[in-house]
DNA sequence: CTGCATCCTGAAAGATACTG
DNA sequence: CAGTATCTTTCAGGATGCAG
């Protein structure tokens, strides 16, 4: 199905999708951009625990994969904005569905983790 | 949305889902088990490039997360089989959808990679 | 504000060899 | 056939600092 986190074999759809949204912040980036957060600095404020460097890297990857478009305004101070492409839009429903499934089982999952931690202590 | 490949913050559904199927072979394992491949050795044959050790680890994680059930037959030679739980079943549609989206854009993506590689050579 | 260059760490995955 | 125990490798992601 998929061979590596960054596989060489993209023979199945799953591997392709994982390649595109497999990055640590990519899904969130897509989500935020979709919701009107377009500038790098604003995106960063929404996920302070991520580094600007990492954000840039992932944004570039998303750009390379055709999910977002990078628009540069030749101003001073410099301004850059990211927008979803049609391709990127097409992915949103899938991400939302993934998120929804997770939310549907969130409590169960958190309980699982909590119990496990209690076990570990005991 | 999600903080780490193996995050500590499971406050959003996406992170939960990524925790569960984020492993290198997990989605494929679920898929194979769903399709009637139940025994570790058979599973391994379907993905020879994975190590038995890694497969075991990921199967155990899937078991821990309640996606699969491990059944041990006290025979000689020893036999073990994995089955999807209801919980695991509920995830399949999502995985299939992810796979379908990827397949729908597979050609485009492969072309992208190919072109990129040609670029790199030039 | 924007991004890049450098170095570093940690966790996942591979290799190998072992037991029941 | 099943699984586990080490050791090593790999690489995405983090920390920091500089530059346009």
UniProtKB/TrEMBL annotation, chains A, B:
PROSITE patterns: HTH_HXLR
Keyword Cell inner membrane: no
Gene Ontology molecular function, alphabetical: DNA binding
Cross-referenced SUPFAM superfamilies: Winged helix' DNA-binding domain (SSF46785)
Stretches assigned to the HTH hxlR-type domain: 12-110
Keywords: DNA-binding, Transcription, Transcription regulation
Database matches in InterPro entries: HTH_HxlR, WH-like_DNA-bd_sf, WH_DNA-bd_sf
Record's protein name: DNA-binding HxlR family transcriptional regulator
Record keyword Membrane present: no
Organism name: Chitinophaga dinghuensis
Alphabetized Pfam families for the sequence: HxlR
């Amino acid at each position: 199905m998929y061979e590596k986190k960054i596989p060489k074999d993209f023979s199945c759809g799953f591997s392709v999708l994982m390649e595109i949204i497999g990055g640590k912040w990519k899904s969130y980036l897509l989500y935020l951009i979709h919701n009107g957060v377009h500038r790098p600095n604003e995106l960063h404020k929404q996920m302070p625990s991520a580094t600007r460097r990492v954000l840039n890297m992932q944004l570039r990857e998303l750009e390379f994969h055709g999910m977002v478009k990078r628009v540069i305004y030749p101003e001073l101070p410099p301004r850059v904005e990211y927008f979803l492409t049609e391709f990127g839009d097409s992915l949103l429903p899938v991400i939302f569905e993934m998120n929804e499934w997770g939310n549907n089982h969130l409590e169960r999952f958190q309980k699982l983790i909590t119990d496990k931690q209690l076990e570990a202590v005991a």
